[in-house]
Amino acid sequence: MMKVLPVFAVAVTAFSAQAQDFTGGDPEAGERVFRRCAACHAVGEDAQSRVGPELNQLFGRVPASVEGFSYSTAMQEFGETNVWDTETLHAYLQAPRDVVPGTKMAFPGLRKDEEVVDLLAYLAQYDDEGLTVE
Predict the structure, then answer these.
(1) For the whole model, what pTM was predicted?
(2) Cα–Cα–Cα angle for 64, 42, 89, nearest 5°?
(3) Cys-Cys with 133: which of 19, 26, 84, 122 at CB 3.0–4.6 Å?
(4) Is Oxidoreductase one of the keywords UniProt gives this record (predicted)?
């Protein structure tokens, strides 16, 4: 049993940096939730940073790492010790200012857990070039 645990830990770590399967999350519903984000953020092949950074290949990304985007000092400091994974994104999307006090993101957060899970399922579809991953 002890030999299985390290192998499992490595597999989980490797998996977390790739597009993830959000069992229970509905990408189509997440696309509708993303419409609230689209004024500031973009995903897809032609995604460019706007008021907020583009969100392709978000999972496994270091916060404050999109080249050319001007991040708050708070987000830069957050990025020194964190990676965007399911847990971190879930917390941030529910209460951005609580997770990163001093963030420039004006959106107050999603209050419904289902909306967060659906949004994460939607965002997980996009690779680093903005192509959807099956």
Answers:
(1) 0.81
(2) 50
(3) 19
(4) no
DSSP state of 132: B
Instruction: Collect all residues with Cβ–Cβ distance below 8 Å to 14 and sequence separation of at least 6.
Output: none
Neighbours of 16 (CB within 10 A): 15
Residues 57, 126 contacting (CB under 8 angstroms): yes
3-state class (DSSP) for residue 126: strand
Q: Among 23, 19, 35, which residue's Cα sits nearest to residue 110? A: 35
Amino acid at 108: P
Pair 78, 63: CB distance under 8 Å: yes
Q: How many residues does the chain have?
A: 134
CATH: 1.10.760.10, 3.50.50.60, 2.10.70.10, 1.10.10.350. Which one for 4-123? 1.10.760.10
Dist. CA 48–CA 71, nearest whole Å: 15
